[in-house]
Amino acid sequence: MHGYLTPQKVGEDKAARKRRWALLSSKAIPEKSEVYNTPTPNNLKRELPEIQYDDFKNSSYGVYRWLKQVNESGICLMTGVPAEDDMVHKVAEHIGPISSTIYGKTFDVVSTPKPINVAYSSVALDFHMDLIYYESPPGIQFLHCLRFDDCVAGGESRFQDLFHTAERFRRNSSKHFEILTRIPATFQKIHYSRYHLAFVLFNLVFQKTSVILYLFLNLFQIVGVNWSPSFEGPLATEEENVEPFYAAYEAFAKAIKNSTNILEYRLQPGDLISFNNRRILHARNGFELNGGMRHLKGCYVNIDHFKSQVQVFSRLSGDGQPPKRVGNQDWF
Known about the structure:
Elements: E1 3-4, H1 14-24, E2 50-52, H2 53-58, H3 60-73, E3 75-79, H4 87-92, E4 106-109, E5 125-128, E6 140-148, E7 153-154, E8 157-161, H5 162-172, H6 174-182, E9 185-191, E10 202-208, E11 211-216, E12 219-225, H7 239-257, E13 262-265, E14 272-276, E15 280-284, E16 287-288, E17 294-301, H8 303-317
Helix pairs in contact: 3-8, 5-6, 6-7
GO molecular function, one term: dioxygenase activity
Pfam families: TauD
Organism: Pomacea canaliculata
């Protein structure tokens, strides 16, 4: 029977849990999956997929190349995009309508004197996914570099394929991995001291596991990952789960921090990077402006709209290949 691995099996005794853990263990996972829609783990340190804006703009095949790279690798750099304020949403709308969030439809990543979000400061940001406290977090994220002065020291963007890291963690720390598929974390964004763009206070809290699996052909496939330490709330679970969870959480955090699969890249004006927020972790080195400016313009597009367009362009191009899994908890 195919189905999701639930966070907690009701009435599951120790023997049943042991059998389920055995199925999840590294011995049950093949070195290379034969499943057609399994994303290939991406070694970002070796290669960043890239496309020229002119190629994207001048042909539907260029659009498909871009979509396919984001789908298969989780990320793609588009170069030569005019450094104009509205270009990020013009590019993004080739996929679908811009997603509206508590930050509006687009947002400006600039360092401000009194930031309402840590992203709008100059401090370093650890690896995370955006807005993970939503039931359906943003799918594809776009960051367009409008200005990055040479005098700015630091501020490089960093990326990591969490599918890749999670698979390695499953092989190397299978007991910890099983715990993270079973005990849900709490993600939250709570503000009563200020208003957001729609002038409404907000209290967003959502429980979900760090790794979500789907059973197919007697193998558990990773179909979702959730990671955003800065926006985690109190753990809500049975007392017996607390210490095992945090031991597993710490081990996974170390695997992310010590990963050798990390890309570090300094965006240039005209660069637009698009990546799957459900798969690719992003971070940032701290920076000093030194009288200059670092300005990125961003927005999001729904993951289902993206997956739909990958399939549409695949069929229209004659390729006919189905999309790779995109981390939206769906096996297809």
